[in-house]
Amino acid sequence: MLREQIEKLLPLVKSPSRYIGGEFNSVVKDKSKVDVRFAFCFPDSYDVGMSHLGMKILYSLKNKRENFWCERVFAPWPDFEELMRKNNIPLYALESLDPVKEFDFIGFTIQYELCYTNILNMLDLAQLPVKAKDRTDDMPIVVAGGPCVCNPEPLADFIDLFIIGEGEEVNLELMDLYAEMKKKGCSKREFLEAAAEIEGIYVPSFYDVSYNLDGTVNAVVPNNSHAAKTVKKRIIKDMDSVYYPESFVVPYCEIVHDRAVVEVLRGCIRGCRFCQAGFIYRPFREKSSDTICRQTKSLCETTGYEEISLSSLSTSDLSDIDETLRRLSEYTEEEKVNLSLPSMRIDRFSKELLEQIQKVRKSGLTFAPEAGTQRLRDVINKNITEDEIMRACKLAFDGGYTGVKLYFMLGLPTETDDDIRGIAELAEKITDLYYQNPNRQRGKHIQISISCATFVPKPFTPFEFEPQASIDEIKHKQKVLLDSIRSRKRINVSWHNYRVSILEAVLAKGDRRLCDAVYEAWKAGCKFDGWDEFYNYDAWMEVFERLGTDLDFYAHRMRSYDEISPWQHLDYYVSKDFFIRENKLAHEEKTTFNCREKCSGCGVSKAVGGACFGKN
Amino acid sequence: MEKINLRAVFEKSGHAVFISHLDLMRAMQRAIKRSKIPVWYSQGFNPHIYLNFPLALSLGVTSKTEFMDFAVTEPCDYAALTETLNKAMPEGLKILGIAEPVFANKDIGFAEYTIEFKSDVPSEEMLSALENMMKADTIEIDKRSKSKGTVKLDIKPHINITGTETASGLLHVFVRLPAGLELNINSNVFIDTFAALSGIDFTSVYAERTKILCLNGENFR
Ligand code: SF4
Known about the structure:
- The structure holds 2 protein chains of 2 kinds.
- Chain A contains 21 helices and 19 strands.
- Chain A has helices at 3-9, 46-49, 53-64, 78-86, 116-125, 167-184, 188-196, 277-280, 289-303, 321-334, 351-360, 374-379, 386-398, 417-436, 471-483, 498-508, 515-523, 537-547, 551-555, 576-587, 605-608, and strands at residues 36-42, 68-74, 105-109, 141-145, 161-163, 201-202, 207-211, 217-222, 231-232, 260-263, 265-266, 285-286, 307-311, 338-340, 365-370, 403-410, 447-454, 491-495, 570-571.
- Chain A has a 6-stranded mixed beta sheet with strand order 2-1-3-4-5-6, covered by helices on one side.
- In chain A, strand 3, helix 5 (116-125) and strand 4 (141-145) form a beta-alpha-beta unit.
- The longest helix of chain A has 20 residues, at 417-436.
- In chain B, strand 7 and strand 8 form a beta hairpin.
- Chain B is elongated and about 60 Å long.
- Chain B contains 4 helices and 9 strands.
- Chain B is of the alpha+beta class.
- Chains A and B meet through helix 9 of A and helix 1 of B.
């Protein structure tokens, strides 16, 4: 039993309650009575991982099955990791405190590229070989899912199989298969072969990748008769009947999103051309107002949370949003629960919505125009106009707000200095609007904060072909922006670290040859790359240099439409033809209708058998 | 709205000993909300469940004598209330009883602890190390205070050892320490001081708070 050893160390570390389990609603089973044990690993800290909705869904879903036991595992913060290593405590799961190396499955959910080194580090902490080929039959099967596995190639050496698409059905199928084959005493290889036959399962070792002389991919070919030529993602058809947890594990320490969350819809009708989520989660499917209200009530009652949030890529696109909010606020007011509404679009911003938002907290409002001029907003298909932005700001100022936060991206395809200056102009116009508004808060000045991310081209978007701007270009753009802001006192500008975005771009569009770089970076001590205090740019660059990895090739190169991408054997139903069409439209500065207005034939509808929306 | 002030005695053990004081507040609020008892909310723009803990407990310490003040909006049967609350409590937190408060926070003067020291060193050796420590004229520690920064404090006169017991590899110390507004010495200060002065490498130390007393010596309730 590790308990005693762990408890002895806990008084020495920050926020110890996250390492010992026992939280309300956590599921403890008798291990002698279950067939399959699954260690669900989130490759980041407890505070981040416990906020993640997908993990909560799959945790409850698996535990609902009597013969499965799913437990939670997070990356220990470096202070505790050091003590674990010193005292030879292997990575363990929070429910049983058993080492994860004794489990049947170790499953990672991969939400962002910057956690790749943490995956290796966790496997190593588990006292397992990090490379799949070095793990023997008596060791757990290591699986991974989540948005990043739409291009899992930079992790191909470390993971036995990837789960492509939505996990609710396929996870259970996989565990059922395992339970059956475990009884028969099958080998790992036999299991992987059988698993590869399940739709949505990608076993990377069953594919050979060859390259052209110029470094691009020549072909990805199955080397095992059980592996399909292309692996299709899994889609849940009906959101009202799909499993949703009745309760969440309630943490003791404060986590990033410390509240109950109801997922109200999946997918997005918008098709912003930079947004990977907008394409890989297609099609748009929503829950009925009845379902949303029922799930809200259940979660509030079983957790005791004082806040509930509606989650989706764009909550204001819910068909009966007004009716749903009316019914929800009836309940939440009665129960003294706060209702928070992230992911609201500017063009759907209304007085009613504003009032609802204000009930919870009066902190700043956030809008995401993403680009400073209409021209560039058309290029990225962010279908909002300056008028709509102004109208939303006016409503906010009428409602007593004295500040807004605006999100932009720098380095978008076709961007010119004029577009950058457009960001400043937009901010100045909002400032003017504020001072001209007779309804504004008297005696208060406005504060606008502009937050700029660097554009990272992602697979499965119309911009997957595009190069990322170079460090010099970004520096130039930052200077142009700063130079064009007049009201420095009222308008404050900040940016994400470009050195982080470049690693994201390389890993996002990388191929299998990057596995070595990920491995070497981890060996060099890289972990928690998503955390400013740990990100070690120089170490990564040193590794890339040593291995001869050409960053320009991965991140800063325009890829031709007919180049075979490293992820071409994975099928998210949105066709490459559609992405090419959309890319061309972007360069012509032409927008595309949203899915509710008109279907643009992206290809997803065939996966749901017919039209995505009743009529189109 | 009617407001009836109540005081619960509760147990903190198992996993729950690693819940910090701040987190305990949240955990209790959530448990109370789940229990659906007619709890009283603070009034205002953003109502919250009113809770107050008269005396904080250090991280890692077990106790069956913790207090929590809250209020209800209608007269309740205390036994039934206790039962309802316990159904909603996380593992390691348990309400032992509910009554109306008698004393105020400022009346608290002392707390008593049972501390188990475990070591590879024979228990007699641990005991004589403790006796040696207590024979000294002064036991000076660095104490942080909000206004003066770090100050030297002689805790010797404030440590009241009421008994000891030894078993193989174990030393149990029963100790009373000040826990008032004027002076508060928590059990970890005593443990750390003993560890530092004796130089003994303890394999584990378990502390349990057994009593909270008023300045006048009466049990706090
Ligand atoms: S098939 Fe048409 S409606 Fe469906 S997601 Fe694609 S573009 Fe939108």
